[in-house]
User: Fold this.
Amino acid sequence: MGEICPKCGLPKEICACEALEREGAKRIKIYNTKKKFGKLVTIIEGVEEGELTKTAKELKRTLACGGSSKEGIIVLQGEHRDKAKQLLVKMGYLENSIDV
Ligand SMILES: [Zn+2]
Assistant:
């Protein structure tokens, strides 16, 4: 007997829950928002926790901007949406998994 998925009740062999979850986790969102005093920042959501620090560091270095990262979110000072997307693609993220 194969294992049964606790989520959908189908045998694990034909259930798509895990694949869907992986897809979901891989989606990345990049957008701008205004902080206190009207300062514009670029937010990047969806980078995996294990990659967060490294990715944030690389983005800050390449874009020569300040920023921080915590709880799955990278914050970059200034407007860097297009360049951040290009960089993430260069780092190996799929272009069509990034929403700008
Ligand atoms: Zn399932």
About this structure: The mean pLDDT is 89. Residues 22 and 93 are 13 Å apart (CA to CA).
